[in-house]
């Protein structure tokens, strides 16, 4: 069977869901400049709960996009880094980040026009 992202049961759809998730995207972009500890990721990504960050990191690790390294120290230290496969996402996600920041004012203006139209009934 050929991959088909429009088929909800296709593995390619699951991969797209993972990399299209807002927390996954922000984790990957945060790891772009190197290895980070859990606390560094949590501090950088405002609004992510501990539960969601943990779930996101586990999903990214399961999909082979992130590595998790536990160091035998007291207290234990855990580092996260992008794999080679994870690094292949950087140009795509950086492009999305750039588009969002470049076109923010246009999107905000469109939202305002839409909201005004909806309120007017």
Automatic annotation (TrEMBL):
Q: Which residues form the HTH hxlR-type domain?
A: 10-108
One short Pfam name that applies is: HxlR
What keywords appear on the UniProt entry? DNA-binding, Transcription, Transcription regulation
Q: Which InterPro entries match?
A: HTH_HxlR, WH-like_DNA-bd_sf, WH_DNA-bd_sf
Q: Which Gene3D superfamilies match?
A: Winged helix-like DNA-binding domain superfamily/Winged helix DNA-binding domain
* Keyword flag DNA-binding: yes
Q: What's the domain of life for this entry?
A: Bacteria
Keyword Transferase listed? The answer is no
**PANTHER family xrefs:** TRANSCRIPTIONAL REGULATOR, MARR FAMILY (PTHR33204), TRANSCRIPTIONAL REGULATORY PROTEIN (PTHR33204:SF39)
Q: What is this protein called?
A: Helix-turn-helix transcriptional regulator
């Amino acid at each position: 069977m050929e991959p088909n992202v429009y088929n909800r049961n296709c593995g390619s759809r699951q991969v797209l869901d993972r990399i299209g998730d807002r927390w996954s995207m922000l984790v990957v972009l945060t790891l772009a400049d190197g290895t980070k500890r859990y606390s560094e990721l949590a501090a950088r990504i405002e609004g992510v709960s501990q539960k969601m960050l943990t779930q996101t990191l586990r999903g990214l690790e399961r999909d082979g996009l992130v590595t998790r390294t536990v160091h035998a120290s007291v207290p234990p230290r855990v580092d996260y880094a992008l794999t080679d496969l994870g690094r292949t996402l950087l140009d795509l996600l950086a492009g999305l980040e750039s588009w969002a920041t470049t076109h923010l004012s246009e999107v905000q203006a469109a939202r305002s026009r839409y909201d005004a139209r909806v309120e007017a009934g």
